[in-house]
Specification:
The chain has 466 residues and is mostly beta strands. It is 11% helix and 49% strand. A hairpin with a 7-residue loop joins strand 10 (218-238) and strand 11 (246-267).
């Protein structure tokens, strides 16, 4: 935030947005009073061309990023669908905050006649903030950040800034604020999911608990989770006494797991962090009656962490000690074992106006046998290559040679089909590639939610929900 008065300042444009956007049919937003009207001599086409063109770019799943709401509340700018048509590129990124909320960074990137004009504003949200409150904070942030750009357009004479009544709030600072919770944040979750049909039923139960404390120097995460998955299949089999009659047999597949974990991280420099990871638990799928791990870690970011919302290039090295006790003897004739391993993870993340990327390459192996190793490449790429043209790719590929937990006993056909336990494999992969091209009007910002909930039958005929 720029000052303590930031949250008290609002902006309004004294013009009727319906006149500004006459060709689109957009209505008057509630935040912009129509106390004056656009001169009748001003042709709608002229107004549309002279109003500021803004492109909204929400990356990383920014909460409260509701484009329809912004269009309704800020009718004095033209919301365009392609960054190549915009005067200002609004690039939004977010990071987890220590209180469980999000720190949202709004970058105002000038283009065309505004090239080189760049500004940044930051807002912080709480974990229990309603989406409506978040999106209204974003509207006010957009208004403040766009004011210098709007000031260079023909509607500048109608621009008004005002200060809400009451004293300016004091900015909270973790270094001097008194917090009865000492910056600890706790969360408890429980989930029940059930689905089924005549011959198949599935029930999932899961629960988790976590505690976290985040300061500039320390990051502590503590957590535990448990899950129960039951699948009930009804199978028809021939009656032993009368083969012409079929009996129904219930086949139940159970998969249970639980874990506890802890992470302690200490800031050493603006780039380097040291930490310790501790975990324990069990997993029937992985043939583990008990697993425990202790692993010191070092992480280095090539870029300063202050630039984390825009770009990261990190190297994470861990050296761990693992202890396993198995439900069944493994293919290496082990009922229990203690093994050391180490891993190196290289990851890069970029959120720029041309798109965003997140790529990682991880390699690890057990110290007692380097041939027991794992190599994984994963990530996603979302590129805006040209006017209206986008390319999306996401996926992962792994070379798997570290499955020391695989049971020696042969799995039954039923176990294989129901995937009750992890099967031995030398590789895994998944991928998605998408190409899109959009063309047409860049001015149409009409919000019309009619026929937005047609149900499943409507979607079958190609009518999108929403």
């Amino acid at each position: 935030m720029r000052s303590a008065f930031y949250s008290l300042v609002t902006i309004s444009v004294l013009a009727a947005p319906s006149a500004l956007l006459a060709q689109t049919g957009a209505g008057r937003p509630s935040s912009a009073p129509a106390s004056a009207s656009v001169a009748a001599s001003a042709a709608p086409d002229t107004i549309l061309k002279s109003a500021l063109r803004v492109y909204l770019d929400c990356q990383g799943g920014v909460r409260g990023c509701d484009r329809d709401f912004f269009v309704q509340e800020m009718g004095f700018v033209n919301w365009v669908r392609d960054r190549f048509d915009s005067d200002v590129h609004l690039l939004l990124t977010s990071l987890n905050a220590g209180n469980g909320g999000r720190e949202i960074t709004v970058n105002f990137l000038g283009q065309k006649n505004y090239a080189g004009k760049i500004d940044t504003l930051v807002i912080n949200t709480l974990p229990n903030d309603a989406d409506d409150r978040v999106r209204r904070e974003l509207v006010r942030t957009f208004q403040l950040g766009l004011a210098p750009f709007i000031a260079r357009t023909p509607i500048a004479s109608r621009l008004r800034l005002s200060l809400s009544g009451g004293p300016a709030p004091q900015q909270a600072n973790p270094r001097n604020v008194k917090d009865k919770w000492n910056f600890w944040l706790y969360r408890i979750d429980g989930n029940l999911q059930a689905n089924g049909e005549q011959l198949v039923k599935q029930t999932n139960l899961s629960t988790s608990i976590s505690a976290a404390r985040t300061t500039e120097q320390w990051k502590i995460n503590l957590g535990g989770s448990a899950s129960y998955n039951e699948r009930d299949f009804k199978v028809f089999v021939a009656n032993s006494s009368n083969p012409s009659v079929r009996d129904t047999v219930s086949v139940i597949v159970l998969q249970r797991a639980s874990s506890v974990n802890a992470l302690f991280g200490k800031t050493l420099t603006g780039h380097l962090t040291a930490g310790l990871k501790v975990s324990g638990g069990f997993s029937e799928v992985l043939n583990q009656r008990l697993s425990m791990r202790l692993a010191p870690a070092l992480e280095y970011n090539i870029f300063p962490w202050t630039e984390a919302t825009r770009r990261q290039l990190t190297l994470l090295y861990t050296l761990g000690l693992n202890h396993y006790q198995y439900n069944s003897t493994t293919v290496f004739n082990q009922d229990r074992e203690t093994r050391g391993n180490h891993s190196l993870l290289i990851a890069t993340s970029q959120r720029q106006k041309w798109g965003n990327t997140n790529l990682s390459l991880e390699g690890s192996h057990y110290l007692h046998d380097p041939q027991r190793n794992l190599l994984t490449l994963s990530g996603f790429v979302d590129l805006r290559l040209g006017r209206g043209f986008s390319l999306n790719f996401r996926g992962s590929a792994s070379r798997v040679r570290d499955q020391i937990y695989i049971a020696r006993s042969t799995q039954s056909e039923r176990d294989i089909l129901t995937q009750r336990q992890q099967l031995q494999t030398n590789f895994r992969y998944n991928m998605f590639v998408g190409v899109g091209y959009t063309f047409g009007s860049i001015y149409n910002t009409v919000v019309n939610q009619r026929f937005g909930t047609l149900g499943e039958s409507g979607r079958r005929f190609g009518f999108g929900g929403g």
